[in-house]
Amino acid sequence: MHLTSLSALFTTALLAFASLSEAVLPGTWPPMDQPPPIKPEWVKLVDKKKLPKAPIQSAQAADCSKAVEFCIWSCNTCLRNASDVSTCPNDKDWGFSFDDGPSTFTPALLDFLKSTNTKVTFAVVGSRVFQNPEILQRIKEEGHEIVVHTWSHPALTTISTEQIIAEIKWTELAIQTAIGLTPKYMRPPRGDMDDRVRSIATQLGYKILMWDRDTFDWKSADDPNYQPSWIYDNFTQWVTDSKGHISLEHDLYEIGATNAPYAVSIVRKAGYTIKPVSVCTGTAAYKENVQLVASGPVPADEQIWGMACWDETLLVTRQMNYQTPNHV
Ligand SMILES: [Zn+2]
């Protein structure tokens, strides 16, 4: 895994949308897209004696020689049932998750979700919350789930314990300041985690949110060969097993955000119920007492939207071109 190139891609995307909102979060906050400062009072929240001695990884390439011992997801997609959630446990439940926002593309996605009574999960970056607090407030008010996704989006296995704590806690504080809620789930950027990262997150009160279906839509930002049809093709294939799933998309990138309605339509048409991940897993979304609910039926007058945007002929063509479940 080439973590440096992924980081550069993310930085480029952040800079591209760096001046979206005038109404930034009040108060003094760390710089955008930079490792936030370490605060001693937060460091004390984690007992370092309890942390597994997983080696800090190089940013250039993961050392997978201890992948089994420390359950390094980036090496072998290793998961620990005690801390990690990667799927909805019940058949015909689907958790959509959108990462790296809130961004300029998020409001249009929210418009669609609201018009179709669809509830999903957003894994937000602290820097973006600082930049777009009003969008985060709208996400909350419209009944979606919010998950911590770090302040500056680093590969967590490559940074110190103190830095990981700062990445999580600054994002937690930004979310608390924007909407008054404290998420119970965090998602490691790029899924990069090992047992040290898990232990830190767990000691800070978090479960780790992963996924079992990846659209790779983030590649659309710099890969001219990326085809949006891959998103439809994959979802069309994924729904055929009728099992519960959690999918990964990104509302930071235009292709991921603007094609999400088609993915939602495919999942709905297959008879799935779309739920925030904490609803499909039967767990709490926040430390505060807030009850989220599953998606409801699409309002009758919104069926027109589906007919207008749903081109069955195109879909058949795409299915015929379908080759592999994941275009890695
Ligand atoms: Zn991310």
UniProtKB/TrEMBL annotation:
Residues 1-23 form the signal peptide. GO terms for cellular component: membrane. One of its GO terms (biological process) is carbohydrate metabolic process. InterPro entries: Glyco_hydro/deAcase_b/a-brl, NODB_dom, Polysacc_deacetylase_ArnD. Residues 92-275 form the NodB homology domain. One of its GO terms (molecular function) is chitin deacetylase activity. Keywords: Hydrolase, Metal-binding, Signal. Pfam families: Polysacc_deac_1. PANTHER family: CHITIN DEACETYLASE 1-RELATED (PTHR10587:SF133), GLYCOSYL TRANSFERASE-RELATED (PTHR10587). This is 5409_t:CDS:1. It comes from Paraglomus brasilianum. The lineage of its organism: Eukaryota, Fungi, Fungi incertae sedis, Mucoromycota, Glomeromycotina.
